[in-house]
Design brief:
By secondary structure, the protein is mostly loops. Helix content is about 5%, strand content about 10%. It has a six-stranded mixed beta sheet with strand order 3-6-7-10-9-8.
């Protein structure tokens, strides 16, 4: 194949169909030829791997012959392309095919043989129509990221394993979220898809639910969490119309901001046995009832509010602004190092009794008396351990009971 890249100032290339080719592989043939505006190549091409990568000035509509197998980064950064995207029947790889082709219009396409749609239409924000996913697709990572003009309902093929950022910022999608049975990663899958309705979903094999439904404020019904999930970081952040009770899978380790601002959740809070971090977990869940909980592996119950997938602001506690939580609370962990604002904004008319391992880091942390305290303000603790076995503060109506065995204390109180 001729080395066209030697002619960096060329603006037009025509290779007639009748020309004998030394190869049908056009991979990287016009790679980074930024002055190229018009190209015609024979329909015998089998590979368009990076063929027009960074051909910023390429105009017209994209093309793909029936013999093409590979469209990896074919038109990446060809942002002057117009018309509708295409995909030949034999294409298997559409990774980043139209990445940053933000002047493309029409509807997305995907051939039946495609297995990889990672970033296929990322930042193609003028695409309209409904999303598609071929039956053989395994990777949908960032497929429609920032395609904020596509409409219709989300789709996910049965063979998909990766849904990270699949529909991130697709704010005009409607209908219900979907998750294929083989999906493992749902990181930010529906981030900022605030017009989605219906119920949240989580496949049985999903491990990562970080930011999945962040700002999906029109989702209804109850939250879900699969048994294999390890991260629920900001999973339902700002899902203000979710109802029902919170859930936490048995393998979850991170619950930071999991239900932050889920103001219509009811029922009692939960914390799985493997959870280590509860920063802002139930912040502003003011309709929750029952008692606060804390698993035996938790070390952090306070931290920055998760304003988006990159930034944090302020310091917000696990149960801050949850006024209806009170009663007997059992903190099984001995290693809690941070409780700032954990119970700030509670209803002080109700008694909160916290049972915590004696002679532990957790006890020391809970008895913090400065602005790093569990109420986010200076607090004075009265030591009544010799008489009633507790430390207490009547202003905030909080009683802390150091015990040798938290589980035994729960049984003794009849709270099992």
């Amino acid at each position: 194949m001729m080395n066209f890249k030697k002619y960096s100032n060329v603006t037009k290339v025509v290779i007639p169909n009748g020309v004998q080719l030394s190869s049908t592989d056009f991979g990287s043939t016009f790679f980074c030829m930024s002055n190229l505006k018009e190209v015609f190549i024979p329909n015998r091409a089998t590979s368009l791997y990076r063929t027009y990568y960074n051909c910023f000035n390429l105009t017209g509509s994209p093309v793909c012959g029936n013999n093409v197998l590979d469209m990896y980064q074919t038109y990446t950064n060809c942002y002057n392309l117009t018309g509708s995207p295409v995909c030949g029947n034999n294409v298997t790889n559409m990774r980043h095919t139209y990445y940053n082709c933000f002047n493309l219009t029409g509807s997305p396409v995907c051939g039946n043989n495609v297995t990889n749609m990672y970033g296929t239409y990322l930042n193609c924000y003028n695409l309209t129509g409904s999303p598609v996913c071929g039956n053989n697709v395994a990777n949908m990572g960032s497929t429609y990221g920032n395609c904020n003009n596509i409409t219709g309902s989300p789709v996910c093929g049965n063979n998909v394993t990766v849904m990270s950022l699949t529909y991130s910022n697709c704010s005009k999608l409607t209908g219900s979220p979907v998750c294929g049975e083989n999906v493992v990663d749902m990181y930010s899958a529906y981030f900022n898809c605030y017009n989605l309705t219906g119920s949240p979903v989580c496949g049985n094999n999903v491990k990562n639910m970080t930011f999945v439904y962040h700002n999906c404020s029109n989702l209804i019904a109850s939250p879900v969490c699969g048994n294999n999930v390890t991260s629920m970081k900001a999973t339902y952040y700002n899902c203000t119309n979710l109802t029902g009770s919170p859930v936490c899978g048995e393998n979850v380790a991170l619950m930071d901001g999991a239900y932050q601002n889920c103001t219509n959740l009811t029922g009692s809070p939960v914390c799985g046995n493997n959870v280590t971090s509860m920063r802002a977990t139930y912040y502003n869940c003011w309709n929750l009832t029952g008692s606060p909980v804390c698993g035996e592996k938790v070390t952090d119950m306070s931290g920055g509010m998760l304003t988006n997938m990159y930034a944090q602001s302020g310091i917000y506690g696990a149960y801050q602004n949850c006024p209806n939580l009170f009663g007997n609370s059992y903190f099984y962990s001995s290693n809690i190092a941070n409780v700032i604002n954990c119970f700030r904004g509670r209803n002080t008319l109700n008694i909160l009794s916290i049972y915590v391992p004696a002679s532990s880091t957790s006890l020391i942390t809970l008895l913090t008396n400065n602005t790093s305290s569990l109420v986010g303000a200076e607090i004075t603790w009265t030591d009544d351990t010799s008489t009633n076995g507790c430390y207490y503060n009547t202003q905030y109506n909080i009683y802390i009971y150091p015990v040798e065995n938290v589980a035994a204390a729960r049984t003794a109180n009849g709270d099992d």
